[in-house]
Amino acid sequence: MKRNVRIATAVTAGVLAIGGLLAGGAVAAGTDETPAPGTTMQQQMMTGRQHYAGRHGEGMHDSRRDGSCTGYTALAARGTLTAAQKTTLAGMAEEEKLAHDLYTAFAARYDVRVFERIAAAETSQLSAVRTLLDRYDVTDPTAGKPTGEFTDPTVQATYDRLLKQGEDSLSGALKAGRTVETEDIAALTEALSGLTAPDTRQVYTNLLAASERHQAAFEHWIAAE
Length: 225
Prior knowledge:
By secondary structure, the protein is mainly alpha-helical. Helices cover about 55% and strands about 10% of the residues. The strands form 2 sheets. The protein has a two-stranded antiparallel ribbon. A two-stranded antiparallel sheet has the order 3-4.
């Protein structure tokens, strides 16, 4: 796979883009990078599908895979989080920032749009988590942190390790992305266990769907390399 290959397919934010609270305006989120069964590489490169969320307060736009919207869905009701669940929520913010910062660095290094697209999705996902942090009065560990800097030493070490891995080669970068998404899937699956707060379950479920799509996208690129 050559570095100048550009894929026009947009990546999902897990059909999650909470309206005005996130960016003070329209937020765009895509669908997955994984090709539809039976499509050729040329067809994949010509396909672009995007979902849009607008100024509707706390809520989400549900979207079809063809990019059309099925309607507006409000963010679910606030529930109750235990102290441990609040700690997990704060950790989710760091994980989303790690993914965003890592993919942004790889997008600048390699002319492969998969990193740029998924980084954009991670921006929406981090915004969704920040909305929950605000709802539950949990301190945002990512607030004011520059690119590549983290509050949790373990997250910092993980970022540094994966960044170095991805700087060595495109293959290393793609595998680093796969690692991030695989670990996110495990963390989100665990976080959903025993979780009753409707809004937090809603966000985590969408983040999980997004990570599964992102993981599939990296698997596809690794196989095609």
